[in-house]
Amino acid sequence: MLGIDWGEKRIGLAFADSIGVALPVDAAVSTSKRKRFMQIENLIKERSINELVVGYPLNMNGSVGFKAKEVDLFIAELERRFSLPVHRVDERLSSHSVEQGLKFQKRKPSRQSGEIDSRAAALILQDFIEERQLRASRNTRHQ
Predict the structure, then answer these.
(1) Confidence class for position 97, pLDDT limits 50, 70, 90
(2) 12-23 mean pLDDT
(3) Could you give the angle at the alpha carbon of 74 between the alpha carbons of 96 and 10, nearest 5°?
(4) Which CATH number is 2-141's, of 3.50.50.60, 3.30.420.140, 3.55.50.30, 3.30.70.100?
(5) How far is CA 98 from the centre of its chain?
(6) Residue ranges per domain, the chain?
């Protein structure tokens, strides 16, 4: 699976293998939209990705706002280009959580590096994996 934290300037990326551990990978930080999509395409091919998990920025009250609508356009482009299933995951406060964790570690990566974005993508992806595992275990118990 490939986790994605979309941003206008940077796209955070994370990879999860069959074990289910999400790890950040280099963010797509090119100023060219085409090059950012090429980086995503290369990752999909190199890592045999078969599902995409995209952070979905709901408003704090749970409603769909302007940013979520921008992400909807990005997701439509992902679906058109790659024909892979795309899962939306509530990402409220994911970047904030990463920044707080880095402060605790006394680290301050530059915003431009995309490290925070890719760590946020890993957090989003890990949340998705854990929720899926939880649902699967519930379904197994109820059968």
Answers:
(1) low
(2) 92
(3) 45
(4) 3.30.420.140
(5) 13
(6) 2-141
d(CA 115, CA 119): 6
Identity at 69, one-letter amino acid code:
K
- Helical H segments across 7-62, by residue range: 33-46
Has this prediction a pTM greater than 0.90? no
Instruction: Give the confidence band of 139 by pLDDT, cuts at 50, 70, 90.
Output: confident
Instruction: Measure the CA–CA gap between 116 and 44, rounded to whole angstroms.
Output: 21
Picking from 50, 58, 129, the residue whose alpha carbon sits closest to that of residue 90 is 58
Cα gap 2→49, rounded to integer Å? 6
Structure tokens at 45: 């091919």
